[in-house]
Amino acid sequence: MIGPVDFVGLEHLAVAEASWREPLEVLNGLADRDGVVGLISDGGPEGRWSFVMAGPDRVTAAGPGEASGFDPLTDLRLRAVAAGAPAPFAGGWIGVASYDLGARRLIGRAAGDWPDLILMRFPAVVAFDHVARRVVRIGRASDLAGAEARLADSEAWLSAARPTQAPSPPAASWRDAASPEAYRAAVADVVRRIGEGELFQANIGRAFEGELAPRRDPFDVFLRSALSGPAPYSAWLRLGDRALVSNSPERFLRIDEAGRLEALPIKGTAPRGRTPDEDAAGAARLLASAKDRAENLMIVDLMRNDLARVSQAGGVAVEELFALRSYERVHHLVSRVTARPRPGLSVADALEATFPPGSITGAPKHQAMRVIAGHEPPRGPWCGSMFHVGADGGFDASVLIRTLAFGRSASAWTWRGAAGAGITADSDPEAELRETDLKMAALRAALIG
């Protein structure tokens, strides 16, 4: 088991501001280093801040079967970002929870080869406020001199920033992990089960895999993806022989400034149009789609039920329903569910009540996960969550969709990713197959052009 997550040794804080630099340029200067994380947002309503960090002072990773829950976080209490905090994340823990951690805990599913839970503690971070165009350097330690030294580390990262340009496509191969025919058959099976009353919805994934060309690096994929259009939750992580590239648009869970829990589930997808009129028409069709609205509503109800387990009585609310969000290649329907947590609630309590995210499982959640397990191998980090837990109280977690997991072999980096579609009673297998192609289009372009 991993030991408790705590902030002992991070009590003293040193802060300085710097001239604006693009966070991607700063991350680019650290790209060759191990133990680097970049949370690179698009600067939009859900992505005002980006963060870059290196040199964790603690790293723990629980392999398959080693973490029975979110015990490492049980000593941490949920609270709003502390008054006067220099940024929503001002040093603390970065975590990656694989989908299989939740599947094993809830339905006894065997895990894959990706760690159940990775935790990295960073005593220094550079925070980028896209709206105010300000950069905040932060150092933390057990004494002021140590905090100043960590602050100097962050200054060196800014000095090492490098201009960015898109490298050539780095992938040597791209292939379906299973045939399109197998995916159509899986969708048809789920539609049948829904018709028989076994469940209402399940998110069925279609996996892809391949290798990078010799001497090519996963950061090439991240750079191509981010330059083509970062999402609110774009992320890069390198740790040993593993790397993670995510271009996720979806928030799983966070604590807002008022101390409330907030989830932003996505359900409903349509392609962007080639002209303004075509784009507007596609968005209007999505907003009017009875199927997509029903799919979204089922997940909103699921999230309401999950959050109610850890909230004050009557404290759960739906503040947005079927809101349109537009990204580089797709439109999405997004809803907003908030909750007032019970006093003393821990991060572990909140995650255990809600993980894995409802938008990538289905309803009822446990039965949907059993159906998923019958059609898919272990998912690894895809459909899990990447999150930060800050010493000043900040907590924010993404859903790891539009995500690739990399592992380094003797000859090259291998990669694996997937895209899913929410299957309902009136799903058409061919249409759901096309939706997975649409959702993988940006990552496919980053890999092979």
Automatic annotation (TrEMBL):
InterPro entries: ADC_synthase (IPR005801), Anth_synth_I-like (IPR019999), Anth_synth_I_N (IPR006805), Chorismate_C (IPR015890)
Residue ranges of domain Chorismate-utilising enzyme C-terminal in the record: 180-439
Domain (Anthranilate synthase component I N-terminal) ranges: 20-135
One Pfam match: Anth_synt_I_N
Residue ranges of the TM segments: none
Protein's name in the database: Anthranilate synthase component I family protein
Species this protein is from: Brevundimonas balnearis
Taxonomic placement: Bacteria, Pseudomonadati, Pseudomonadota, Alphaproteobacteria, Caulobacterales
